[in-house]
Every structure is written in structure tokens, then in C-alpha cells.
Write a structure and sequence with these properties.
The chain is α+β, with helices and mostly antiparallel strands. It has three helices and eight strands; from the N terminus they run E-E-H-H-E-E-E-E-E-E-H. It has an eight-stranded antiparallel sheet, covered by helices on one side. Strand 1 and strand 2 form a beta hairpin.
């Protein structure tokens, strides 16, 4: 189950997963998993993923879409509450100075977990399609969750 709410400068995506919060956290924060799901193109590839998941720690993800376009998202963590919540800044290498904020909540629902992603303070001149991008990325994330649960 997935719901998406958006406005001019914010998108909220909520999704239920048949997995524990600890697995969602691992797939969201560990580079070897990010290499498998990040990016808004179903056929895109992640080239590098660097993560220092600590307050003030930096991340950087470089990926390419199937049409050859190249993207790098980077920022720093402002809140890290393991298995509960992550907050971090978000900036595109291609759009310097257009910094936005991402909040990810991990909520245990017994045998399931809910992930709530809020990407806010989106710059009105950004060329990126955040709703489509996060929806596709979370579809790929779901696939990785299913693969890991099947092990």
C-alpha cells in the first residue's frame, strides 16, 4: 500500500512493507543496498553510494538514468535516530544552492513496517520530478525488501 501527497514545495510518500523496521533501515542506509535501488529511473544504475549515517555525517549518491543523464545527490544528516527517523539535507550537484530537506520515518506495525518519506522545501525552479522519482525509487526499494525477505 502506498500513498503520495504533494504540494508546490513538498512531497510525502507513505508505504507499508512486509518487513521489520531494522531491514528497512539497513536497505535505506547501507551503500551496498543503495546501489541497488536509488534513483527515479526503473532501468537506471547507481554508480557510487557513500554514507556516513551520523549527525553531521555526509552522503553522496551518483547515478545514471537509462537515457544517459547523470545525477549526483548529496547532503548531510541532521537527525539520526536508528530504526526510527533520519533527517538530511538534499542538494543536486546540477542545481547548487537549491537545498531541500528529506525526513524518513520508520514505524513498526507488528509484522509490517511503514515508511514515511517527506521531501520538503523543494525549490520551484528545480528540474527534478520528485513525485515520480521517489515513487519509482520506492518501487525498487520494495523489490530489494522482497528479495531480502525471501533469503
Amino acid at each position: 500500500m502506498s500513498t503520495v501527497t504533494s504540494s508546490a514545495n513538498q512531497i510525502i510518500v507513505e508505504r507499508i512493507f512486509d518487513a521489520p523496521v531494522s531491514l528497512l533501515w539497513q536497505i535505506w542506509t547501507e551503500p551496498e543496498f543503495i546501489l541497488q535501488w536509488f534513483g527515479g529511473d526503473p532501468r537506471g544504475t547507481v554508480i557510487t553510494a557513500e554514507m556516513d549515517v551520523s549527525i553531521g555525517g555526509k552522503y553522496k549518491v551518483h547515478f545514471a538514468d537509462s537515457n544517459g543523464s547523470d545525477h549526483t545527490a548529496w547532503g548531510s544528516f541532521t537527525l539520526v535516530d536508528k530504526h526510527k527517523r533520519l533527517n538530511y539535507s538534499w542538494e543536486w550537484l546540477s542545481e547548487p544552492g537549491k537545498t531541500s530537506e528529506v525526513e524518513v520515518e520508520f514505524i513498526s506495525l507488528g509484522d509490517q513496517s511503514k515508511l514515511v518519506l517527506t521531501h520538503k522545501n523543494l525549490h520551484p525552479d528545480s528540474k527534478h520530478r520528485y513525485q515520480q522519482g521517489w515513487t519509482v525509487a520506492l518501487d525498487k526499494f520494495q523489490h530489494i525488501v522482497s528479495l531480502e525477505r525471501g533469503k
